[in-house]
Every structure is written in structure tokens, then in C-alpha cells.
């Protein structure tokens, strides 16, 4: 703390300041939002307090507030400091936050075990004819695990992916055993997960998944009529019945299983209906991924792309459902991803963060041994290298990796003046394949949802209480 000298006695001096430009906007019901866009700091006040807040911010900015060293003891000044809008002696409530995710270490390794699959979803983003027949060898997998542990933080999640990863079940068992031994050597907490189409479960596989505490994600797009629009077999027949029959044989897997839904024009207007369907089915965790024009869908993306207005309305419907407690203890991650980014500085979802997790927290290895910053980034110029040449460490230090890590809202032109930039992180790089661009569709969704979430938080604590129910150490 700085001091002024009065004779021989040191007198503490409190210096107040404003933590960057702050905007004020009405958000309905006679309430106003004060927002500092760089940090995402905010406070909501009643109409009658707006002038008081503005006066205090002006007094802090002009150093007038410094004349009152006990000002921090007054409730409104203390609240502005806790909210991160005021600084005291050059420090504020978010000094500890790494806003551009610069100090993160790898916490997720995706192993794409095979390029092939036993079904043929017509929108599959991961389909590549040139690598379809490839299979990651056990030795390649071990090299990826070893290299990732060398670059990992205290916790590492290994996600087995594909194609259909359970077509390589024998290799997965070997790699899990290897990873458990290696993680113990490095003192790394190991988490295991798998994303599957759900058709390959057997008693042996289910026993293995339960024993090793896998988080199991099953890809399903909704009720049968919705799911079977695009999730079909090689003869164009729907897959819903086969998947649900396979899953229903193993109720003991339910506590470890969640559902991932791809949002297309077949379900974009019906997301709440889809969520309720899986709720009634007993699913405890549900998430979505919005259709990406890659793989099989590259030639005719308009056949699958969701309507943005329908998607935004569906998100609003989900928020309504959560506030009405229609989902109980079911984890509705499409809501939680956005709400958590508003409620805290840490912003746990690596895809909705300034300086996204690609090549910082996440690394992906394809079935041919190619190393990617994220399994969704398909642009060849952004490939990081290969296991054969440089391995994981070489890939993470490559020029493409550094280029990807340099992408922040500071250097994305549409974001520099946007109030919501820290909440959304500049949209997903995978959607554009260009570190200098943002995805306009995802941007529109964020610009609709974040103000709406803050409006809801101004009127009740229901979203806050819902978010508190779920611990999510790796909120992808």
C-alpha cells in the first residue's frame, strides 16, 4: 500500500480507480446493467440507484473519491469493487484472471481411434474419404498419451472418439491401462470419456466402461422422427431403433451416460422438445453441437444448416424451461455454457472463451496420426503436424499452434467494440477456419443470449441456483 508521510507517521492512502470503460444500459423491469466489457464485470441496479453509481464511478475516475479513505466501507462502493468495476490501489476483483487463457495447460486429449463408422450420418463433419479406413495404432496412441502428459496440467481427460471408437475397443483397453500407469507416474488426475453412436455396447464393453468410470456420450438428435432424418445407416435407414435397443439393455450405464445432439434444420426449432424427450428417457446430461459444414456436408450445407432465428428462439425456450424447473437435476449444458460465462470470470467452457482452448487446453490426434488443435478444425493450414514428426510437443510449439493461440477478441475486428466479447470469446475458430474471422451465425446467437441471460438474472436467482447444482471440472 502506498503511504504519505506526515512527520514521522505513515498515513495510508487509498487510491480508487475505474476498471476500464463502463457502459450502462436498461435491461427491463426498471433495472440497469453496468458492464465493463474487457473483463465481463457487471452489476445490475434499480433505476433509483443509477445516478449514485454513475456519480461514484465519476468520483473514482477523477480521484475525488480518494479524499474519503473509508469509502470502501460503504455498501455501494464495496459492491462496485466486488463486481470488478472499481479498483483500489491499482487492484481489482479480477486481477487473478487470465482473460486470454495464456497460462493454461493441456487438460483434454482427443484420440480419434478410427476414421470409419458402422453408420453413415449424412451430415458427419468427421468423414474424410482419404482417411476413412485409417485406424490409430496402440503405439501411436501411447505416444500421444505420453506426449500430452508432458504438456498437461494437474488433470487430463482422454476422450476416445472416431468414426465410431468402439470399433477399436481392443486398442482402447490397452490405451486405458497404459494411460493409468503413466498418469500415476506424473501425478496427473486421469479422467476418461468416450463419444459413441451407441450401437456397439456389449456386456464386456459396458463392464469395462463402468469399471474405469468413463463418461459416456451417445450421439442422438431427438425422438425417432427427428433423429432418423440424418442419422442413418449405409442403406439410408434410420438408426434410432438400433441405438435405443442397444442402450436399453444396459440400464446400469445410465448414471455415466449423456446425450450429444447435433443441431440441424431438423431440430433447431424443437430443442426444448428434444431435451424433454431425453429427460423423460432418464438422461442426466444433455448437450448440443451446432451443425458444421464439413465432411459429408461440405457440398450441400444448406441441406442441414439450422435457421438462426429458430435456433435463438429454441435457446430462449430452454432458458424458460430451466427457470420453470422443468428439468430438475438434468444438466442442460446448452444453457449452462452461456450462463456460467456470465456468472464468473473463469468461463469454464473452452469454446466460449477469449483465447479458446484449441492448442492451449485441447489437442486432438486423428486416426492417421495427424495432430490438430481441435478435432473440429478441418482447415489444412491450421494442422499442427503429426505424431511421427515432432509428436505432441512439436505440434504444440508449431507455427500453426502459435497462430491459433494468438487469436483473441483484441485482434478480431467485429469484437473490439462489442460489449459481449469476453463472454463469447470471439466465436468458434472451427466454424471459419480463419484466425482473423468470426462466425456471424454464432455471433448472432451470443448477442441475443447474453443480454437475455442478464435480464433474467436481474429478475430472479433461478438461473444462478440452477448453475450451482452442477460441478463441471472440464466444461467443454
UniProtKB/TrEMBL annotation:
> Which is a Pfam family this sequence falls into?
SPASM
Q: Which cofactor does it need?
A: [4Fe-4S] cluster
What Gene Ontology terms describe what this protein does at the molecular function level?
Answer: iron-sulfur cluster binding; metal ion binding; oxidoreductase activity
Check the record and name the CDD domains matching this protein.
Answer: Radical_SAM
Which residues span the membrane? none
- Is rRNA-binding a UniProt keyword of this protein? no
State the UniProt keywords alphabetically.
Iron, Iron-sulfur, Metal-binding, S-adenosyl-L-methionine
The protein's superkingdom reads: Bacteria
Q: Which InterPro entries match?
A: 4Fe4S-binding_SPASM_dom, Aldolase_TIM, rSAM, rSAM_sf, Sulphatase_maturase_rSAM
Q: Which residues form a coiled coil?
A: none
Q: Which part of the chain is the Radical SAM core domain?
A: 102-331
Which protein family is it in? Belongs to the radical SAM superfamily. Anaerobic sulfatase-maturating enzyme family.
| Protein name per the record | Radical SAM core domain-containing protein
